[in-house]
């Protein structure tokens, strides 16, 4: 652990983006223009531009563009405006956070949970030590629990040494969600702070978040996850000097004179979550749709239990209704004996799992969905903008892939079995926000088409449009320019290209998750490794490397055919647009291929 203290302990998180009503207004204005231009372009694509002699190619690409445009509309809705939840003073007693004037004046009781399975006990020790440093402006009762599904004596010893309570169980039913349920049965805090094994809370986490719970409808508060161990990378002159000696260093300095400082190898897996938390999640507050992401979240125990009990009762009654229908068909009776119905209910209740946190690989977002849709209650979620804890990032491509597959597969599995778009109790805004999340994970389908499409033209000269004429550029360029300008303003303060490139290069993991869910296979819970996995990770990026290789060959082949051999099956407009398209794909995919080769210092 001394390595982390030596290299990263001094790091501080960036402050949340400062809200600017002027920037927001410009973003909204440009977004409307971009959507209008996009609709105009798509109308032209389907109505006037399809290559009728190659519909096998033209229609799938037009479908991909349409699907991407739907994603664009959902994303614009997500990013429409910033509406931070008003922060209130830290509550003094339990009475301040109850929906009653007759609450208890006792100090608040907080449970801090650290679920763990196979993480290094010394890593968990660091988290416990930081949790013990949590401060509060009023008297408060804080209890720290280590929830060890690994049943390790070494972990029990660490918990005892750090004055934390140790909880384990006989089986690992429900994985993390089952672990949390088991801990809730043996604790009684008014609020629960959910941490991962490597989550190191800041002393201010409670002082800065419990005030939100003065609103008795606030069920949970999510704080941004911040990875404090992202690699610094090397400055370009130093990197070139390593391979080219002094001339390389001079070349690097010359390049930086022109374009500014260049760092290579910083955050190779695009792990920095600032775009997700400070832009995407934070801007879901305005329709009460920011969802729980697990680590770094604070939950009102009563909200979780109340929603779970309702869901438990509803599931039992639905099963009783279904079973009663079956029995009436078998017996031919219109009305069943009350004693028989009571026995059926008792048997079903005995077998039904009570799950405060849903037994699912994505238990965090599923529990959010359950609370948001709790009919009869207006449970609210809050995305707190400031970082209140620090965590470790995936340090190799295998760990990154395990994590991203779990995110994608878990979300798509929820959409398949309990689609939030059709779930009762959600507002229209909440449905759209959840739909945006699901739709983004379907993007692997059209992203794959966007990567393949230029290859068809480069190798065959067959175009997806009737012709690459001025009419094509008149329709597509205003849309692309308006979209880039809009999102430059919409994500003002955070560079967006690396996130877009990462999303495109994510397509093999995305497709694998989609196929797994379509087959009905269970998305298995795998703990994201906290230590760097050794070995060669090129086998994980062969799809991206193949696309890059084929695109390079296609660019060379088409250029030779048109510029040297005078093959007029190609057109200058077609060559230019597909060369630009191909180069963009190469640039976007190269990051993940280089990440497979990346080695930490």
From TrEMBL:
SUPFAM superfamilies: Nucleotide-diphospho-sugar transferases
Topology within the bilayer: Multi-pass membrane protein
Organism: uncultured Thiotrichaceae bacterium
Residue ranges of every copy of the Glycosyltransferase 2-like domain listed in the record: 112-303
InterPro entries: Glyco_trans_2-like, Glycosyltr_2/OpgH_subfam, Nucleotide-diphossugar_trans
Protein name according to UniProt: Cellulose synthase (UDP-forming) (EC)
Keyword Repeat: no
Annotated keywords: Glycosyltransferase, Membrane, Transferase, Transmembrane, Transmembrane helix
């Amino acid at each position: 652990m001394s390595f982390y203290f030596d290299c990263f302990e001094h790091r501080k998180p960036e402050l949340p983006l400062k809200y600017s009503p002027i920037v927001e207004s410009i973003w909204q204005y440009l977004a409307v223009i971009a959507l209008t231009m996009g609709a105009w372009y798509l109308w032209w694509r389907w109505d006037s531009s399809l290559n009728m002699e190659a519909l096998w190619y033209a229609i799938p690409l037009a479908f991909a563009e349409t699907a991407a445009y739907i994603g664009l509309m959902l994303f614009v809705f997500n990013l429409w405006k910033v509406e931070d939840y008003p922060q209130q003073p830290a509550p003094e007693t339990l009475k301040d956070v109850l929906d009653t004037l007759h609450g208890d004046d006792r100090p608040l009781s907080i449970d801090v949970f650290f679920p763990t399975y196979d993480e290094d006990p010394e890593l968990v020790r660091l988290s416990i030590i930081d949790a013990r440093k949590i401060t509060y402006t009023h008297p408060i009762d804080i209890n720290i629990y280590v929830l060890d599904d690994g049943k390790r004596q070494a972990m029990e010893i660490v918990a005892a040494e750090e004055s934390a309570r140790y909880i384990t169980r006989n089986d690992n039913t429900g994985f993390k969600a089952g672990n949390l349920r088991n801990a809730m049965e043996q604790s009684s805090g008014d609020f629960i702070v959910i941490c991962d094994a490597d989550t190191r809370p800041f002393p201010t986490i409670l002082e800065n978040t419990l005030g939100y719970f003065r609103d008795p409808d606030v069920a949970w508060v999510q704080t941004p996850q911040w990875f404090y161990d992202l690699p610094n990378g090397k400055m370009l002159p130093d990197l070139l000097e390593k391979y080219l000696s002094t001339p390389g260093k001079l070349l690097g300095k010359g390049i930086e004179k022109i374009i500014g400082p260049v760092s290579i190898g910083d955050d190779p897996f695009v792990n920095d979550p600032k775009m997700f938390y400070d832009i995407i999640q934070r801007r879901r507050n305005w329709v009460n749709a920011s969802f729980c992401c697990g680590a770094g979240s604070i939950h009102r125990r009563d909200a979780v239990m109340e929603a779970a009990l309702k869901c438990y009762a509803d599931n039992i009654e639905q099963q009783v209704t279904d079973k009663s229908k079956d029995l009436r068909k078998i017996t031919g009776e219109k009305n069943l004996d009350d004693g028989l119905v009571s026995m059926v209910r008792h048997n079903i209740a005995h077998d039904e799992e009570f799950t405060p946190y849903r037994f699912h690989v994505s238990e965090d977002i599923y529990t959010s969905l359950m609370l948001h849709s709790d009919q009869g209650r207006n449970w609210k979620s809050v995305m707190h903008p400031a970082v209140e804890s620090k965590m470790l990032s995936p340090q190799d491509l295998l760990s990154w892939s395990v994590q991203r597959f779990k995110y994608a597969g878990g979300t798509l599995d929820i959409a398949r079995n309990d689609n939030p778009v059709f779930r009762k109790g959600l507002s229209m805004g909440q449905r759209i926000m959840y739909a945006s999340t699901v739709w983004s994970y379907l993007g692997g389908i059209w992203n794959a088409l966007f990567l393949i499409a230029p290859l068809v033209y480069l190798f065959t000269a067959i175009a997806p449009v009737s012709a690459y004429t001025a009419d094509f550029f008149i329709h597509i360029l205003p849309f692309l320019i308006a979209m880039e300008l809009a999102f430059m303003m919409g994500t003002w303060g955070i560079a967006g290209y690396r996130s877009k490139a990462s999303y495109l290069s994510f397509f093999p993991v995305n497709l694998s998750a989609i196929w797994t869910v379509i087959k009905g296979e269970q998305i298995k819970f795998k703990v994201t490794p906290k230590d760097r996995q050794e070995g060669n990770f090129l086998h994980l990026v062969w799809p991206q490397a193949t696309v890059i290789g084929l695109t390079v060959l296609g660019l060379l082949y088409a250029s030779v055919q048109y510029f040297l051999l005078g093959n007029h099956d190609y057109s200058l407009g077609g060559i230019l647009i597909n060369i630009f398209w191909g180069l963009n794909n190469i640039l976007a995919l190269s990051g993940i291929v280089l990440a497979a080769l990346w080695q930490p210092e």
